[in-house]
């Protein structure tokens, strides 16, 4: 008996993902709907599963267009860091079949296989989001130049010395970038319209921060969120002063180490006075002694900052590894409940 398409869709919708493979073998009527859902998102930390999925996509032409999201990473329990060339060749060939791919996540522990992106004429998709644990090198840059619809890009690998500059007109739709400062400098050479930037600093890039911030003036019309991780406390005052001067229209700023003592704390206040559109502020008070761990102390601190920047709606206070989200209800500051707080805090910088 042939089932009508609507019935097949309903059955597949209520089937557990682990049972979809068996459902594909049940009947021809159910096979297509089950395969569409099975291959829509490919995500596994088991390289054997990824390899078999890629092998099926390469050998069966109908499967490639079903893939919308492809996540490649190693299980945390796995000790092997280098995967065989045979594996990466199969991944590359499978990518050539995924013409409807929207999201691509590649975590290469060896940071040595970005070449799978280098055959641009064979890559049929235009990504919306890319997340790479790969080096910033010529393979990645040439791939990015081909992606005209990319909106979100995260890269955590280091930058190669011979990495070329972008061609003019690259990444016209990019609005969110998360990566190292040197990579961000490359992006600023483009006339892009970035809205959200997150940059993790380290010892080698700390001193470049104050030179980098003025370059954000090219984005002052569009930039709404700036998240800089691990700002040294000795640079916090100069950093926020520069940010408030170069990008006064930001809606989100973080993560600013807040000095405990005056007059440095009052300099932070002065910078906040210039930011009339700021909605979200993330500050770090981990080096205070004693830590402001009680609700009353944190509410007083939120009220103090709000006095100098009345537009603020959310304040995230970092005390060591703890993060507390406070929100203003129009009359007073309240603590956000724990349920879902970390998800909200993690995404705060790119929600504006």
Structural class determined from secondary elements: alpha/beta
Number of E-state strands: 13
Q: Strand-residue fraction?
A: 15-25%
Sketch the major β-sheet.
13 strands, mixed
Oligomer class:
single chain
Q: Gap between N and C termini, in Å? A: 52 Å
Number of helices: 12
Helix content: 25-40%
Average of per-residue pLDDT values: 89
Could you explain the architecture of this structure?
- A 13-stranded mixed β-sheet has the order 1-2-3-4-5-6-7-8-9-10-11-12-13, sandwiched between helices.
- The longest helix has 14 residues, at 233-246.
- The chain is built from twelve helices and 13 strands.
- It has helices spanning 5-13, 20-24, 28-40, 47-59, 85-95, 138-145, 181-187, 209-212, 233-246, 264-273, 295-308, 341-347; strands at 41-44, 69-72, 103-107, 129-133, 152-155, 176-178, 196-200, 225-229, 252-257, 280-284, 314-319, 322-328, 333-335.
- Strand 9, helix 10 (264-273) and strand 10 (280-284) form a beta-alpha-beta unit.
- The protein is an alpha/beta fold and 352 residues long.
- The mean pLDDT is 89.
